[in-house]
Amino acid sequence: MTIDMAHFTPLSGLIGGMLIGLAAVVLMAGPGRIMGLSGIVNGVAGALTDPASWRDKSWRLAFLTGTLAAPILYMAVSGKTVPVILTDTPTMLVAGGFLVGLGTRIGGGCTSGHGICGLSRLSPRSFAAVATFMATAMITVALAG
After folding, report:
1. CB-based contacts of 35: which residues, under 8 Å, 6+ apart?
2. Which of 74, 92, 118, 132 would staple 114 via disulfide (CB 3.0–4.6 Å)?
3. pLDDT of 13-40, one tens digit each?
4. Does residue 109 come out as left (phi exceeding 0), alpha (psi in the -120 to 50 range) or beta?
């Protein structure tokens, strides 16, 4: 998948980053939860196998619903579409998704949990995780480019 950089504007990145930061603060200040997407998804998936654990899942479902509904709502209101070009096969996308999920399980969190929330809390574990994410990304770009 590639991002159409011709339609990227610094203003949209700034606004998006501010909204992500605001969501992290609201989630931490409200229910006292860390905004890590893999943990949120894992909590919902766990509730599917253990219905007794649904008492703490409403905020997770609300967060995931908003994450999925926001771009759809944006496109409906603005009349714009988001250009996404898939350059990989479905097999590669599934394999990549599996590896990302495995990495978040091994690393004890995902890029949003460590990079946004962990760094802001000065977590040493998150500093190590983000350094690993970034180094791996740079090596991957260098090898794939």
Report:
1. 23, 24, 27, 28, 63, 112, 113, 116, 117
2. 118
3. 888 889 888 988 998 898 888 888 888 8
4. left
Token pair in block for residue 137? 């990304």
Tally of structural domains, the chain? 1
Q: What is the mean pLDDT of residues 118-144?
A: 90
Confidence of residue 53 (pLDDT cuts 50, 70, 90): low
- In single-letter form, the type of residue at position 6 comes to A
Range of the domain at 43: 2-144
DSSP of 53-112: GGGG-HHHHHHHHHHHHHHHHHHHHH-----EE--S-HHHHHHHHHHHHHHHHHHTS-HI
